[in-house]
Amino acid sequence: MKPLEGISVIDFTRVLAGPTCTRILAELGASVIKIEPPSGDLARAGSPTADGVAGYFLQLNGGKRNLCIDLNWPEARKVVFDLCTNADVVVENFRPGTMTSFGLQYEAISAANPKIIFVSMSGYGQHSPWSGRPAFATTVQAEAGATATVLAHYGENLHSPANDSSSHADLYTGLEGAIAVLAGLNKRASTGKGTHADVSMMATMLNVNERLHAQINTLDNENNEPWALSAPDSPLFKLADGSLVTLITSPVWSPAFSRYCTMMGRNDLKSDTRFLSPDLRPQNYEHLMTEVRSWMHTFRTFGELEAQVSGAGGLAVGRVREPNEALESTWAEAMQPTYEIQVGDRSVRLPKGPWLFDGQDSGALSPAANQGAHNREILLESGLDEGAINDLYVRGILREVKSS
Hints:
By secondary structure, the chain is an alpha/beta fold. It has 18 helices and 13 strands. The strands form 4 sheets. Strands 5-2-1-6-7-8 form a 6-stranded parallel β-sheet, sandwiched between helices. A 3-stranded antiparallel β-sheet has the order 9-10-11, with helices on one face. It has a two-stranded antiparallel ribbon with strand order 3-4.
């Protein structure tokens, strides 16, 4: 039995943050109904595709049943409102005010279903001065200081300013949304009452910034040590066989410098006047790295390096791998972190949830559904009869896209 079996979720989300949250809930065993408009989730327009279906959509929307219904119709809003009144959880990531325009806001649903856990994800929160602003990961990362942190980190190594390669604000907010659901369910178990959680991408990005304490306060750093245990400054090295590796922490950081010297068998560097302090080591960084690189080139393979440096008192080391290489590793062979689905005549591999509960992983999710694939099934379960469902189809309120 999965942890969230028996929990029902009505999912009004689209694109990335919200679908990440509800995919996590599905992986944990919840029954998720995705409410999708006839115009479709924008994620369906992503590239690349398998048999015409966006891989982006497949990765985010497995394990969910699909109700494709036009909420611009009052009849549709009544149908969906009734689904919410019988659900445990509602998740949405519309711009603030959209759910109210549909009559599906927390206050309305909780009046009919006081036990509802209602999670709203947005760029800047439901009631902030910026609530009405459009928000995507890159824009929120810019506003929250994350982009400035990236630019400062790379400094002169960047030929021109560039955004990060990942949509952190969306992904982290999806995780925080799932945490909010779990917290709400636990609160309900104690009080019998539901709750409304307001999760913003802006607050999330500030919360997950491990350097924020140093960026917004005047703190003591007399010796000018690198920030945050220097993990972001961990250097990359090329071994004799051409493979790229990283050793955790920068040799500028005093505790790491001592360990580097010991591993290299170069305790003489500890008394080298160029490297005596964290103030001096950045000034003589290229000289220091020349010594380290010379030592790194004595290792023919990653295995040789790891055997020497990863023992007691050593440092963690990682080989730079492409995702396909990671999934060909002995770790992946043992842990089986992906599953396969069939999309047309194509086999597509997707990531599982990262947990093992009592040694069992989250397993495979059913493939992401076509628009309206479960319309009739869901509405019959809700109490509508075949005649009423057929009428919704005839009037264009329901849409169903058949597999090609």
